[in-house]
Specification:
The protein has three helices and eight strands; from the N terminus they run αββαβαβββββ. It has 194 residues and is of the alpha+beta class. The structure holds alpha-D-mannopyranose (MAN) and calcium ion. The site of alpha-D-mannopyranose (MAN) has 7 residues, from β7.
Length: 194
């Protein structure tokens, strides 16, 4: 194939030079625009995420305020309410149900030690009314962790002791089975997804 040789005149060189300079300039401008838009996009995404996070924290804080104002205490994913008076086990449970909660279910050593802070004879959500000797929590689950006081549960003197209480003791193991008609303080628990 034949090529036509065009002589490199100074005017032609100048034109080529301008073309290169203009193209480089355009490239620079394009790069600046691209960089600014990327930063803007990143900024607005971060701002959106932060707003969502802020809203979710505000919601949690509102729930927390609402419960604490009504005397509930937060611990490990649940709110707890300690009664100011004493009632039978069933009446205590009824009170908890009316608060949208139930008698406390103790499922870990941490929770047991948290409950132990409240000193008194206090009802917990434990009963063997359904079947003598089969202790169940109010949600129907059988006992996993047990913190019975030594010698308990003992159905003392052959009397029906079908409800679980905690006693004000130094020892970690402070549960006792006692008469459901006795009047005790009680603790309600409400699991809240904060
Ligand atoms: C009392 C009751 C019983 C308990 C004994 C332990 O009689 O609280 O339930 O088992 O004390 O001595
Ligand atoms: Ca007992």
């Amino acid at each position: 194939m034949d090529y036509v040789n065009v002589p490199d005149t100074p005017a032609r060189k100048g034109k080529l030079c301008r073309l290169v300079v203009v193209s480089l300039g355009l490239l620079c401008i394009l790069q600046v625009i691209l960089s600014i838009s990327l930063r803007l996009a990143l900024y607005s995404k971060t701002a959106k995420n932060l707003t969502e996070e802020e809203n979710s924290l505000k919601r949690k804080l509102n729930v927390f305020d609402l419960y604490t104002q009504q005397g509930w205490v937060y611990f490990g994913g649940s709110f707890y309410y300690i009664s100011p008076f004493k009632k039978s086990w069933s009446d205590s449970r009824e009170d908890c149900l009316q608060r949208g909660a139930d008698l406390v279910i103790i499922s870990s050593r941490e929770e047991q030690n948290f409950i132990r802070q409240f000193r008194g004879y206090i009802w917990i959500g434990l009963t063997d009314t359904e079947e003598e000797g089969t202790w169940k929590w109010v949600d129907g689950t059988v006992l996993n962790k047990r913190f019975w006081e030594t010698g308990e549960p003992n159905t003392f003197g052959g009397t029906d002791e079908d409800c679980g209480e905690v006693k004000p003791r130094e020892e970690e193991n402070n549960w006792n089975d006692t008469h459901c008609e006795n009047e005790n303080y009680w603790i309600c628990e409400k699991i809240v997804d904060l």
